[in-house]
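Morning F.,

Quick status update on the modeling queue. The single chain you submitted on Monday has been processed. Sequence for confirmation:
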Amino acid sequence: MSNMDLWNKVSKTDPRHTKDVSLGRKFTAIDAHYQVMRATETFGPVGQGWGYTVEHSTVTAGSIVLAAADVIVWHGDRSNCFGPGAALPKFLTPKESLMTMRLRRRQLTR
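Structure tokens below.
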């Protein structure tokens, strides 16, 4: 397999699995479940041929909470990884912070 074979195989996204987003800037988002499905088709079941780890962190300043997540993706074996890619959704109010913690717990226990 050449260095570009995998890239050429998965570089095009089926537009049925995208949507336009405008959050201060415009971009096209790819459905996360579609991405997991394509990775599973390419590398095998998550946790065997590929997988990811997520490290969450928060910084609190008064009543404002900054929540971040670093995602590291691996394939083949866990030492062959890419990342971290940072996700920084927004500043959270105290109520949103509690909801975020509950959602994080739910994600980790699935």
